[in-house]
Each structure stands twice: as C-alpha cells, then as structure tokens.
Amino acid sequence: MSELVTYSQSGKIGILTLNSPPVNGLGLPLRRAIKAGYENALADDGVQAIIITSAGKLFCGGADISEFGSPDAIAEPHLPMVLEQLEKSPKPVIAAINGAALGGGLELALACDYRFAHPKAKLGLPEVHLGILPGGGGTQRLPRLAGAETAVKMITSGIPVSAAQALQAGFVDEVASDDGDFLTEAVEYVKELLAIDAPLRSCADMEVDTSKLPENFFAEFRNSIARQTRGYYAPERCIQAVEAAIELPLAEGLKREQELFLECVQTPQARAQQHLFFAERANTKVPGVDPKTPARPINSVAVIGSGTMGGGIAMNFINAGIPTTLLDLNGEALDRGIGVIRTNYEISAKKGKLSVEQIKQRMGLLKGTTSYDDLKEVDLVIEAVFEDMAIKKQVFETLDKVCKPGAILATNTSTLDVNEIASATSRPEDVIGLHFFSPANVMKLLEIVRGARTADDVIVTSLQMAKAIRKVPVVVGVCFGFVGNRMVECYGREGARMVLEGASPAQIDRALTEFGMAMGFCSMADLAGGDVGYLVRESRRDELAHDPTYAVIADKLYELGRYGQKTGRGFYIYEGREQKEDPEVVQLASDLAAELGVEQREISDQEIVERMIFSMINEGARILEEGIASRSSDIDLVYLYGYGFPAWRGGPMQYADETGLAYILAALQSYRERLGEHGKHWFQPAPLLEKLVADNKNFNDFAGLT
Questions:
Q1: Residue 552 and residue 569 in one domain
Q2: What are phi and psi of 245, to 5 degrees?
Q3: I need a surface site. Which of 386, 441, 491, 555 has the fewest CB within 10 A?
C-alpha cells in the first residue's frame, strides 16, 4: 500500500493517515492512495469504522496545484469519484480534522459521515479566489449540513471559519479538547459512535433546511455582494450552485455543480486569478540568488522620518512585534508622528480590531528619538525622508558612520537611483530599496529594489522580512520609478493629456473604474497630492523638455495651490468626503489647449482605456526587456497590490496576453499615427512587444534576461 496514506488499526477502527507533505494536496497519487486505503479497510471484517486524518499540521489543503491544467487533474479516480465512494460506505467514515481543511480537503471531510475537529482547525472553500467554484461536491453537501445561508457566504467569500463556528453551523459534529492528544480523542469519539450504533449519514438522504431562510434571501444576498464581486465570474455561479442544492436531489445537484464548475474554468477571470495565484508563489524566486542563503537577523528596526510614510512603515514592524525606533530631527514633528500612530491604533480599537492591552503592547515597542546615536545597534534602518537625492545621500552618509557592521541600510525612495544613494556609503552591499506604498501600514505591496552591489543575503533577508510584516514583495531593478511608478508615469501622462484634449476628469475616471480600476487617474492624483507629482516631474524636466504639453494641466493645478484632497481642490472639489466635478478645470484645460495648439475633441471611453492601459503595458515590455522585472507576473503583482488593478483581469501583462499582443501592438501603432507629434514620441512600440507578436508568443512566455 502507498506510503502517501498509512494504514493502522485501533481495535475495531481503521485509521487512514494522509502523509503527502506539505499540504496533502489531492493529486492523482494521493487520490489513488485514499481509494486503496479505504478499500483495504472496507475489506477488513475486523474494522467497523474508518477514520481519515493527517500526519502533518494540516488535514488537507485541497487540490494539488501542480496538476492544474494537466490530464492528471481529471484522471480517475478523480476527486468526485473518491468522495462518492466514501459517502456510500457501508461502514461509518469519520474525518478527524487535525488542522486546516481547505477546498477539496473540506469536501473530503463533508463526504464522511461525521467530522471531529481540532479546536484550532480552519475549514473553508477558497476556490472562488481562483475564479472557480468547489468542484468536489462542496456546493451541494455544505448547504445540506450547514444550511444555505452559511454555505453561500462561505463559498462566495472563500473565507475559512473556525472549528467552533463550524460546530455551531452543523458541519462539524465534535471538537477536541485544547490540551489532549488529538488522535486519541478522535478514536474515543468513534468508539462512542459505535457504542450507540450511530447511523450512517449520507448527504444524498438530506435536504437543505430552508425553513429559516429569509424571503428573497438570494436576491438580497446578490445585491449585498454586488460591489465587491463586480467583474468576477465565479461568485454568481457559486450562488447558482447553492440554489441547485435546494432545488435538486444530491446526484442531480452534483451534475449541476460540475456544469457550473466547467463554465468557470473556461473564463478569462479564472485564468487571471490563477495566474496571480502562481505569481505569488514565484515572486520570491530571484534570478542569481540562492534561496538557501542565510538571512541576517532582524531583531530591531529604525525608521527615519516621522511623517505619514515613516509612521506607516514603523507600524508594520511594531504590528509584527519588532522593536522600532522612529527618528526625526524635529522634536515637534516626532511627537506629532507618534501621536498619529497612537490615534490610528485607537481608531482600530473603536472598531473592535484591537484591545487596549494590544495598543499598550505595540506602543511599548516604539521609541522616538532625535539622535542618530540611538541607531547604533539596530539591524535594519529604513529612510523615509523627503524625495530629494541630496537629502537622502546626506542621511546615508550619516548612517554609514553610525550603524553597526552588517546593518541593512534601506531607502524608501519611490523614483530615485538606489545605486547613487548607495554611493554615499562605504558599504553599498548593505544598501537596498524598500519601497512601501501609501498608506504603508495598509498597502500590501513592497517593491524590493536590488542595487548593483546589493548582497544576496540582504535580498533574502528583505524577502523574509516582507513575509514577517505581511507584505507581498516583488524584487525589481534600478531605474526611474522602478516598476510601479515607471509604468504609472505613462498612465498618468496619457490621462493628463486627454484632459487637455477635451475629456473631463469625471469621464476619464468613469472609463477606468468601469474597466475595473479601484480608482480613476484624476481621483488617484488628488489623493496622492498634486504637490508630490509636481516634485517628481521637477526632477525630470530636462527629459521632458521636448513636450511642452506634458502634464501641463497638473502643473497648472499645482501653481494654483490645488493639490487635491489635502487642499480641498485638485481635479475635483472636495467638501468633506464628497467629491464634486469642477467646471473650472475643464475651462482651464480648454484655455491651455488653445495656448499650446492642442485640438480639443470628443474622446471615447475605449480610447481613454486603451491609451492609458496600453501605454503601461508597452512600458512593462521595456521593463521586462531591460531585466528590471524578472517575470511579467511580477509586474502584475505590483499593479494588483500597489495600484488597484482588477484581480479578475490578472494585472496589466496578463490582461495584455488575454486581449492579444497583436491587438495591443496594432492599437499602439494606430495611436502613433493619429496623435501627431505626441503619438510619434510616446507610442513607439517596445521592441519586445514587436518580437513577441512576430513569434506568436505572450509576455508569460518571456523568460527574461539571464
């Protein structure tokens, strides 16, 4: 018998122990082993009941992701076949859920007669995050055991529940004690079932209890999730599958589940979401860096600059339990920054997210100082001062003198040359870019900028640190704006230009949010601050001198002191939280267009989206060709977690692959011809894009530079 499932006996109880590290993924070999183990226990006349449990910390993590898209995924015995066999067992089958039971793992447990869970177990059906629905009977069995309301909420959200919640809902029958031996307690539980001659329980014999289901529940539920599921395909099919569980016998419901599952699998949304799933498992693989390189210890951190960014960065570390020193040479600013951090925590406490004790604990990890001498022993320093090269180099000269050997010196610059910053020190191998996104305590993206001489162990340490503070890291190379801001510069350039050409800020934002962006360009610019964008442009005026129309509307708003939300006026007027259109901006754009000889015209939503998104994609192709990003999927992660690109489109590069690179190229060439001098300069297709189209390949096929 396969070692993927070990077989043992405890009296009259046969025990099948899943042993396929790391997560007992339900690939073909494990499915075969479960089937064989079950049949072996069934054939043993001395066995009256069968326990299925796990040798690892998890019960079962679901499908084997390495099988996605391969024939093995549907090869017999496929999962529904194995689960049907367990459900029809003439001997009771009990799932002893010793850890997380997710996706197919929970479906395995649901097919059993009874479920005994560890108190710390998590149970969930997260398939919706992959653009699909549970395909192993989860949409049919869970409603029968837990009710339609619990089932539809769990399946459409993908959020797991605790063992206690599952017990209350009815799809766990017993929870083990906190301090006992789990398997021993599971065996005792099964002995009790045998002693009382507990009946076999098949979902085929159950109907969904709708007696307490509110009238119009499904219609109201659809409305309640409409906003967060807009653009996604799977959530609606999840709802339809649960409705089928109410209306159909189990066998017919399982067939309907399979039909809906196959519908989902074939959608661009499923391909996009699965692309991102794999992207998050590839992003820590850095070309030329051995992942086994020993990391440096990070037991204490310092952040320089107590403004919004510095304070937000500091919160990440104290949230993770790491002592942090916040330095600001201005004592009043330092006190203000620490006060903001405390206020942020107090707001969280009022929402029930933190206790008073947790606030005290976190603030106890934070120390403020106005002296660099207090940074002598820290393991990591992150500079978050004004975006000015001279100031940053001065800071790093000081850090080089003060910090201990081996301390990592990081800059939070969003656009500046990390190599030049490193040149201010005698140890460029210790210097790295750690580009947090605002608000830094909320946004999940962390661009890790690898300098020309950054040591491998500094990169490995930064990746591990990112995980510790719950960030999604993407390692990028040195260039203006790295990946995120370099690409968003193209996006913003076209947005500002089209305001000049006659599109209103509201039209531009509407077109982008209908495309799926979390926020339109003009709203994003107002949120970030027009003064911030202006200072970035100031650092590049020589490069932009050839184009007198470049972001001229944004520059004019800056000159008028209209910085966006912080001043109450920008592209829009702000009254409290209310955003209003501003006819003065439209008139201002008209006046500037006349001065600069730019013809105003009606611009379609399609043109807005194509010029802004395709420009980003074109720049992404250059970034790949230059080796600034290792993979197109890394770029997609940057845009998902840093810029609000819709997950159901998979990021700009996956969207390009799905749309067709030939179409993207043709559109760029068309705008190059149609937009005069602006088009000739800004819409030159990237050589890599042209090459991939000629070779009939996608960005995902591009292996990068070696």
A1: yes
A2: -60, -35
A3: 386
Under DSSP, the state recorded for 200 is P
Q: What pLDDT shows up at residue 706?
A: 35
- The per-residue pLDDT for 72 is 87
Residues 379 and 401 in one domain: yes
**Claim to verify: residue 513 and residue 625 sit in the same structural domain:** yes
- State the residue for tokens 């997210």: 353
Count of Cβ atoms closer than 10 Å to residue 687 Cβ: 11
b/e per residue 52-70 (b: at least 16 CB within 10 A): bbbebebbbbbbbbebeee
CATH number at residue 104: 3.90.226.10
Helix (H, G, I), strand (E, B) or coil at 483: coil
Structure confidence at residue 673 (pLDDT): 97
The two structure tokens encoding residue 507: 């039209």
The two tokens of residue 624 are 């790949």
Residue 11 corresponds to which amino acid? G
In single-letter form, the type of residue at position 680 comes to K
User: Reduced to 3 states, what is the DSSP secondary structure of residue 476?
Assistant: strand
Q: Is residue 16 part of a domain?
A: yes
Name the H helices within 59-181.
Answer: 79-87, 104-110, 138-146, 148-157, 163-169
* Domain assignment of residue 279, yes or no: no
Of 265, 291, 325, which residue is a domain's last?
A: 265
Q: Does residue 455 lie in a domain region?
A: yes
Domain of residue 458 covers 301-476
Contact 423, 450 (CB under 8 A): no
Q: How far apart are CA 339 and CA 360, in angstroms?
A: 13
Residue 51, H or E segment: strand 49-54
Rounded CA-CA distance 574/112 in Å is 57
**Which H or E run contains 531?**
helix 530-538
Residues 230 and 84 in one domain: yes
Q: In 3-state terms, the chain is what percent helix, strand and coil (to 5)?
A: 55, 10, 35
* Dihedral of alpha carbons 680, 686, 691, 697, sign: negative
pLDDT along the chain (706 residues), means of 10: 86 97 95 96 96 96 85 91 97 98 98 98 98 97 97 98 98 96 97 97 95 93 96 98 97 98 96 96 94 96 96 97 97 96 94 93 97 97 94 97 98 95 98 95 96 98 97 96 95 97 98 96 93 85 88 96 95 94 97 96 98 98 96 97 96 98 98 96 97 96 65
Of 212, 239, 265, the last residue of a domain is 265
Strands (E), 168-287: 174-175
Question: Same structural domain for residues 532 and 406?
Answer: no
Q: Alpha-carbon torsion 246, 251, 256, 260, what sign? A: positive
CATH number of the domain that residue 408 is part of: 3.40.50.720
The pLDDT of residue 705? 45
Q: What are phi and psi of 124, to 5 degrees?
A: -165, 165
Question: Rounded to whole angstroms, how far apart are CA atoms 107 and 508?
Answer: 45
Write out the two tokens for 436: 């947090």
Q: Which of 3, 87, 127, 599 is catalytic?
A: 127
Number of structural domains (the chain) is 3
Residue 272 forms part of a structural domain:
no
Q: Confirm if 387 and 536 have CB atoms less than 8 A apart.
A: yes
107 flagged as catalytic: yes
501 classed as catalytic: no
Among 76, 87, 107, 429, the active-site one is 107
Assess whether 208 and 357 both reside in one domain: no
pTM: 0.94
Structure tokens at 403: 């910090």
Per-residue CA distances from 588 to 497, 545, 553 (Å):
13, 22, 8
Pull the structure tokens for residue 619: 């720049």
Q: Are residues 341 and 217 in the same domain?
A: no
The distance from CA 350 to its chain's CA centroid, rounded to whole angstroms, is 27
pLDDT at 2: 54
Residues 503 and 469 in one domain: no
Question: Domain containing 673 — which CATH number?
Answer: 1.10.1040.50
Using the structure block, give the residue that is written with the tokens 């339109």. Answer: 520
The pLDDT of residue 153: 98
